[in-house]
Amino acid sequence: MPDVSRGRDRVKPGKKSRLAARLGGWSGPPGPFRPEFWRSPLRGPWLTSVLGLVLLAGITLVAITGLISYAAYEPRLPGNDTTPGKGLLGFYLFDWPTDPVWLYRVTQGAHVVGGLTLVPILLAKLWSVIPRLFAWPPARSVAEAVERASLLLLVGGAIFQFVTGILNIQLFYVFPFSFYPAHFYGAWIFLAAFAVHVAIKLPRVLRTLRKHGLRDYLRTSVADTRPEPPDPDGLVATHPAPATMSRRGLLAFAGGGSMIMFGLSVGQCLDGPLRRTALLAPHGRHYGTGPNDFQVNKTAASLGVTPASTGESWRLALVGPHRMALSREDLLAMPLYTYALPIACVEGWSTVQTWTGVRLADLARLAGTQTGSAGVTTRSLQRGGYFGQASLSAVQVADPRSLLALRVNGADLSLDHGYPARVIVPNAPGVHNTKWVRELDFTRKRP
């Protein structure tokens, strides 16, 4: 096999000398800014291309499901928009449906679990291109400057989106800013940089994989692992160290890490014994009792809801052309309906439970509005926190499965699950299924 490092040295000195002369003999900062600092024989266009294609598919899935999640919040309705001033970035928003009832459960689960699964692949990809991030000088042409700027936004955006997303699903609200707008705008910045990067790199990735294929590198043992031929991006080590792992081993290590992440998080999207395997999910650790034995996102105590505020003095206020106050006994005396419906949270967990309650459409008529003519704004007893109120569309109110739930699985709601009454709407994000409801305001017209 030819001496790759010496062949590379024969190519580069002239360029380095001319550049050093223009810089007064200075060859750049020491350490990671110098090519000889990076010595792994595994780095190169082939490895980066394989990891890049995996990320291209995975990030596309996570991005699409993330945008769907934002649409599910119905941000065009009053009080639902967590990102005021979004302007043109909301161009794709659409009326969120109530069918199929499992849609949000699947898309949000895919968003969260998919993001967690991609973490080892993302780290491997960053490791494979890290020499490029420290290349000196920063740019030799306008085209290279544009590429490096997009790379900075790409890497910074990826780190920001993954770190803030993971902290949010773990309930570590340590941000000095609001998570929702930061994650939304950060996603668009990242996606713009991602699109530029794909447009620049994808043709080169495809050429690399067509030229070298997969079989030869994947069959190469550690003993036979050699650096790839010199590349224009400077990923291949100029002074490689002996291989301690094959490229196949590195891909297996990253893929195995992804499978572990998947296995420790997907259980939160499933009912049954597998839920106990979701060790990376903070939800579901605080179960209720008996029929109320399922996830609690925020407890009543954490939001200032007390047994005294939900006791016999509690009344549900209906606001519309007719105003009235109903006790829990009044609600239980009305026609009650039972449906098995999922409840799915933005943090990724979901479960199907059987809910019994009064149809929102019946309460709308009681308040003097016609079915399908008005949406509703629900207001909670909770104090503080996000989503103390939420707006539902007229379509959501009119769906016969949309309930003001009083019972779950044949038992009264527990306090942590929203006693004395909570909203349950098919295919709605969990935060719109308001707990501890004190008021239903039907004065808002369509949508």
Automatic annotation (TrEMBL):
Protein name, entry field: DMSO/TMAO reductase YedYZ molybdopterin-dependent catalytic subunit
Molecular function terms from GO: oxidoreductase activity
Claim: Lipid metabolism is one of the keywords in the record: no
Membrane-spanning residues: 46-73, 109-130, 151-176, 182-200, 249-267
Alphabetical list of SUPFAM superfamilies matching this protein: Oxidoreductase molybdopterin-binding domain
Organism: Nonomuraea rubra
Compositional bias of kind Basic and acidic residues: 1-12
UniProt-listed InterPro entries: Mopterin_OxRdtase_euk (IPR008335), OxRdtase_Mopterin-bd_dom (IPR000572), OxRdtase_Mopterin-bd_sf (IPR036374)
High-level lineage: Bacteria, Bacillati, Actinomycetota, Actinomycetes, Streptosporangiales
